Amino acid sequence: IIAVWSKGIPLTEVIDVVEYLEPVDGRLEVLDPELPIDLIIDYAHTADGMDKLIDAVKPFAQQRLIFLCGMAGERDLTKTPEMGRVACRADYVIFTPDNPANDDPKMLTSELAKGATHNNDVEFTDRAEGIKHAIEIAQPGDTVVLASKGREPYQIMPGHVKVPHRDDLIGLDAAYAKFGGGPHAD
């Protein structure tokens, strides 16, 4: 909005078209506004990206902010503890692998946890199980953020095999099972 306005287009014209803008899939995406929790996915996968994501979400969290993030395999691990530290700005943190490739998933979650600054964090070596746990512990009014993958439709596993995986679908399935609703609700 500011970019267009700065080019001399009157703000009233800019505001008139805002309602027609489509959000970017997987970026600060609220999955189902009818749920009693805010379930959000985002592609943020660096300390800086996660910091900005938490800055954007935290002021609007009615209750707890539950933050799930992952570390990709075969990457520079020196930055990983910083990601864990940033994630701990949330009330509860779940560390998972994200595309572990040929790296040990436990090693990836342990590297993230090295940066943890509170004791409200857990590690899951299976990302889908971590997502289900996030929904299990969520209560109405909580905000659950699934970070690191956005709408990426796979996990890269050993041998660089791409295995189907969707954070959004796993999160929604778990949320509908717990809270009801969804496309098949009566």
Provide structural commentary:
It comes from Staphylococcus cohnii. By secondary structure, the protein is an alpha/beta fold. The chain has a single domain, classed as Protein-Tyrosine Phosphatase, Chain A (Alpha-Beta Complex). It has helices spanning 2-6, 11-18, 47-57, 80-87, 105-113, 127-137, 167-179, and strands at residues 29-30, 38-42, 65-71, 92-97, 121-123, 143-147, 154-157, 161-164. The protein has a six-stranded mixed sheet, with helices on both faces. The N and C termini lie far apart (40 Å).
Question: What does this entry show, briefly?
Answer:
The protein is globular, with a radius of gyration of 18 Å. The longest helix is centred in the C-terminal third of the chain and has 13 residues. The chain has one domain: Protein-Tyrosine Phosphatase, Chain A (Alpha-Beta Complex), CATH 3.90.190.
Structural class: alpha/beta
* CATH architecture name: Alpha-Beta Complex
Q: Major sheet, described briefly? A: 6 strands, mixed
Quote the average pLDDT: 93
What is the CATH class name?
Alpha Beta
Question: What is the succession of H and E elements?
Answer: HHEEHEHEHEHEEEH
Sheet with most strands: strand arrangement? 1-2-6-3-4-5
Described by the principal axes of the CA atoms, the overall outline is globular
**CATH fold name:** Protein-Tyrosine Phosphatase, Chain A
Q: Quickly count the helices.
A: 7
Pathway: Cell wall biogenesis; peptidoglycan biosynthesis
Domain Mur ligase C-terminal: 26-150
InterPro entries: Mur_ligase_C, Mur_ligase_C_dom_sf
Pfam family, one: Mur_ligase_C
